[in-house]
Write a structure and sequence with these properties.
With about 180 residues, the chain is mostly beta strands. It contains no helices and 14 strands.
Length: about 180
């Protein structure tokens, strides 16, 4: 694809930071990045332009600090030719309640993002933890209406509705069965 919004987890302590990697599939690929938070090289919302050739990569890494706050989610990545985007986090403390504790260590996390044009409109998830799971939802368009149904065994469903604009982030925690539409 040629248009992406990144999804990461917020920074933890020390060098446990969020990041994303852009991979060019063709020569002379013009890329524009607008990071949503301060990075090691750029300020938040600073428009950055650069050129990549086939197989070249470009790493954007959040500046250290701001435990649980500094986050590259919703950074804008656009290009004139198809690119790949891998989002991730070094030594990720993945928690159900979205809270970050100093010294909490975990594993590296990375995943390849789908371009905006391939994002869906309805998702269903089944939990992997008995106390429920955590989800991060990002809107790809303005005026998105998000309906969240948290279905729990033998109890009535919790239904919440949210209005989101492009790039808005919603953290949902302790979700037992999720249906987004």
């Amino acid at each position: 694809g040629t248009s992406y919004l990144s999804v990461t987890l917020p920074n933890a302590d020390n060098d446990k930071v969020c990041q994303f990697l852009i991979i060019a599939s063709e020569d002379s690929t013009q890329v524009t990045v607008i990071p949503s938070a301060n990075t090691t090289k750029y300020s938040a919302n600073q428009k950055v332009n650069f050129k990549l050739n086939k197989g070249q990569t470009y790493l954007v890494r959040a500046r250290q600090g701001e435990l649980g706050v500094r986050d590259l989610t919703s950074s804008v990545i656009k290009s004139n030719k198809p690119i790949g985007l891998i989002c991730g986090h070094t030594r990720t403390p993945i928690t159900v309640d979205a809270k970050y504790q100093t010294g909490l260590f975990s594993s590296h996390q990375s995943f390849m993002m789908l371009p905006d044009s391939l994002w869906g409109k309805e998702y269903i998830a089944i939990p992997s933890r008995s106390e429920g799971d955590r989800f991060r939802v990002v809107a790809s368009k303005d005026s998105t209406r998000l309906i969240v149904k948290n279905l729990r065994p033998f109890l009535p469903a919790d239904i919440d509705t949210f209005k989101m604009d492009r790039g808005d982030v919603l953290d949902l925690s302790q979700i037992n069965f999720l249906r987004l539409n």
